[in-house]
Amino acid sequence: MSVAEQSIAGAEARGHGFLASSVGRKVVMAATGVILFGFVTVHMIGNTQAYMGAETFNGYAKFLHSMLHGAGIWLFRGVLLAAVGLHIWAAVSLTLDNRAARPVGYRAQQPVASTWASRTMRWSGFILAAFIIYHLMHLTVGNVHPSFDPANPYANFVSGFKAPAAAGFYIVAQLCLGLHMWHGVWSTTQSLGLVHPRYDALRRTIATGLTVLVVGVNISFPIAVLTGFIH
Ligand code: HEM
């Protein structure tokens, strides 16, 4: 099948709606990316309560689980799961389309106007997905935690990060989160049409500032436990 035939076959298999267009799926990626970015930022702010001691942190966890008589957290989990699912679906389907449009590949790829972060979006996304599964098993379900106590999230936090391998994986995953977020903010502002020499410095500053803040604070948690600052 020729390249043109493959592209036509791919487009026909998807149908002709908004989501069939690559622009539609890029909008889905950006919108779900904004939701996930918002969650990661709020989650990071919430977790800073670990610096205020066991009572504050456990009180915060209790509040999250009792919102709307316990229905709030399930509502929130549903939205988050849908956002993650749609984000991954849009990413995979756009990647498959790009491959179908260029089945032979470049002999020597010469990236033009692309950054290291943009080229690493796929594997940083893959490591992040693995991290989220591990993180839920570690601090929410507790089945990979050495001494999980559902009634004491603070103790789970501290004893969880005392294991250097677990703390190390969290740190590596946050660095991947940083790469992913940095390029995500950069390309979302690009999709919003903010491409202009006048805005480029501002976009770069916002992308870098937000990423350094979220990643820096997140990395501080395992480090604070390993150094005994949080105990
Ligand atoms: C070092 C950084 C992080 C720390 C210390 C941390 C800590 C925690 C803790 C303690 C919980 C359990 C809360 C509870 O059950 O009461 C939790 C839940 C969760 N975390 Fe994190 N987290 C971190 C980074 C992340 C990142 C980067 C993501 C996503 C990319 C994430 C996604 C989640 C999700 C989805 C939940 C489950 C919420 C629920 O109960 O439905 N976390 N986190």
Summarize the structure.
The chain is mainly α. It has helices at residues 3-14, 22-47, 54-66, 71-101, 116-119, 121-141, 153-161, 164-191, 197-226. It starts with a helix and ends in a 5-residue tail after the last helix.
Describe this structure in words.
With 231 residues, the chain is an all-alpha fold. It has a single domain (3-226), classed as Up-down Bundle (3 helical TM bundles of succinate and fumarate reductases). It is built from 9 helices and no strands. It has helices spanning 3-14, 22-47, 54-66, 71-101, 116-119, 121-141, 153-161, 164-191, 197-226. It starts with a helix and ends in a 5-residue tail after the last helix. The mean pLDDT is 86.
Key phrases:
3 helical TM bundles of succinate and fumarate reductases; 75% helix; 0% strand; 231 residues; single chain; binds protoporphyrin IX containing FE; globular
Radius of gyration: 21 Å
Order of helices and strands: HHHHHHHHH
DSSP helix fraction: over 70%
Strand content: under 5%
Specify the structural class.
mainly alpha
What oligomeric arrangement do these chains adopt?
A: single chain
CATH topology call: 3 helical TM bundles of succinate and fumarate reductases
Tally of separate helices: 9
How many distinct domains?
Answer: 1
* Ligands, ions, cofactors: protoporphyrin IX containing FE
CATH class: Mainly Alpha
